[in-house]
Amino acid sequence: MGEVILTMKGIDKTFPGVHALDHVDLEVRRGEVHALMGENGAGKSTLMKVLTGIYTKDAGTITYEGREVEFHSAREAQDAGVVIVHQELNMLGHLTVAQNIFIGREFKKGIRIDDKKMNEEAKKLFDRLHIDIDPMETMSNLTVGKQQMCEIAKAISHEAKVIIFDEPSAALTEAEIEELFKIIRDLRKQQLGIVYISHRMDEIKVITDRVTVMRDGTYVGTLITNECTKNDIINMMVGRVIYEEPKTHSMVPKDAPVVLKVEGLNAGKMVQNVSFELRRGEILGFSGLMGAGRTETARAIFGADPKQSGTIYVNGEKVTISNPEDAVKHGIGYLSEDRKRYGIVVQKTVAENTTLATLKEYLNGIFINKRRENQVTQKYIDSLATKTPGTDQLVVNLSGGNQQKVVIAKWLTRNSDILIFDEPTRGIDVGAKNEIYKLMNKLASEGKSIIMISSEMTEILRMSDRIIVMCEGRITGELDIAEATQENIMNLATREIS
Q1: Which of 365, 399, 478, 496 is a good FRET partner for 226, with 20 to 30 A between their CA atoms?
Q2: Average pLDDT value for residue range 182-187
């Protein structure tokens, strides 16, 4: 590691009802990857938004390349060489990939935008990232993972001296993560300062040099990565040890009734002849690599995407699900992997989002019964341990993990008997994960049935009673949890079907 390139000292930031940062310190050196860790709501993303001019600090100093600075916009920070890859995707879906990457700094030929040049430069970036994305593709047509890689390419396209990666691997496959790490190591050799925000402990040990831990908006301490253990970091983050033991046997009685049966479901290339059963009180894990068709299967069942053929039975009765409203009527709730796009309305309050799927129940004529709405919202704030100053807080002001809890509360108020949880803990810290795991187990014990799609193998093994594995749009195997291992799941996830 080289000289100090960035120092943040005594940074303070308050929002209405929330003291988000309480005199926080951070030091980043040239040629280091510096992890920034903490539970959701600890203030990590807020600290980085203060650095990059998205938020204005209330107190403290920022020293960059030996001089005190204060950026007033993300563009100003970028021009100075401080670039952030956000946790939430900030791309414009109707534009092409190349147009998104170079938006605001387009190449021009005379007075006209030079799309050909932008496509060529975007292609060079993707070649450097070793990923196959067409620069002319419309952004909305890409998967969440591909969109995240475009965010990273956009950040790297700036002549950066400090790059902040905010949960960059959350939506990436193992192969994509390896490519990301290659890029980060290359940037480290070029003496860039890199801040790496992640909840994945294994990544922190592999890619970072130092770890700064925050808790409840305060600075806890900084550790040298190769001199500390996973439990050292967790203890600093949450003040307690959290054990993640895999489930050894199914908790579902053998005679538990089938609540959902899917036969011969087809929905494009990514859902081909999918058949399975879900039992009452079961957590059915869906595993597979990105692009295996798990999300597409869930969306077809929920009616969010059209299906070409197939039969769905709910509690033994054949049902027709043409849209999400049909699914909800039949007691099916869907927690999307992309909560910002499909799960919440960020400019509405916690209460308004919580009752979004059950709004008719809170109407008195044309008016909403705010007292009842706030009562049920507070119930789920308490049971999910959602960090919010109140029911009237705008969801946009909550951390990613707490936004996820609001989405879960929305479906719990609907009292859905079948819940599809698509990447339920993506971007959520170990403490909050533990709370959601307990909640899912509680729901299952009360008779709810859960389909859980997850890209984290440890999560699949910890939570599932049974595991369905998919590859290239087809089911390649089914495992009882008692016989499931990472190795045999991976073998099924990479199996070619003749």
Answers
A1: 399
A2: 86
**Does residue 253 lie in a domain region?**
no
- Residues 307, 196, single domain; the answer is no
Give the end of a domain, one of 238, 273, 291: 238
Write the pLDDT tens digit of every residue in 310-343: 999 999 999 999 999 999 999 999 988 776 676 7
Q: Is 38 helix (H, G, I), strand (E, B) or coil?
A: coil
- Look up residue 101 and give its amino acid: I
> What's the chain's length in residues?
498
In a domain, 252, yes or no: no
The amino acid at 97 = V
Amino acid of residue 20:
A
Q: Please list, in sequence order, all residues whose beta carbon lies within 8 angstroms of the beta carbon of residue 227, skipping any fewer than 6 positions away.
A: none
In this structure, the number of other CB atoms found within 10 A of the CB of residue 248 comes to 9
Look at the chain and report how many structural domains it folds into: 2
Contact residues for 271 (Cβ-Cβ < 8 A; gap 6+): 265, 293, 296, 297, 300, 307, 473
Q: Which of 415, 441, 100 is nearest to 424 (CA)?
A: 441
Q: Report the Cα 366 to chain-centroid distance in Å.
A: 36
Please list, residue by residue across 302-324, b when 16 or more beta carbons sit within 10 angstroms of its beta carbon and e when fewer do.
Answer: bbbbebeebebebeeeeeebeeb
Q: Which of 360, 359, 357, 309 is nearest to 334 (CA)?
A: 357
* Residue ranges making up the domain that contains 471: 258-493
- Answer left, alpha or beta for residue 126, where phi above 0 means left and psi between -120 and 50 means alpha: alpha
Residue 51 φ then ψ, to 5°: -60, -45
Task: Report how far residue 403's alpha carbon sits from residue 40's, in angstroms, rounded to the nearest whole number.
Answer: 10
State how far the Cα of 69 lies from the Cα of 7, in Å rounded to an integer. 10
User: In the block, which residue shows the tokens 């060489």?
Assistant: 81
What is the DSSP pairing of strand 418-422 with strand 449-453?
Answer: parallel
Which of 238, 241, 243, 277 minimizes the C-alpha distance to 260?
A: 277
Q: Minimal CA–CA distance to 371: which of 351, 387, 356, 389?
A: 351
- DSSP letters for 2-15: -SEEEEEEEEEEEE
pLDDT at 498: 44
Whole-structure pTM value: 0.61
Dist. CA 206–CA 115, nearest whole Å: 39
Tokens representing residue 373 in the block: 């709405």
CA angle, 174 then 441 then 487, to 5°: 30
Residues 308 and 226 in one domain: no
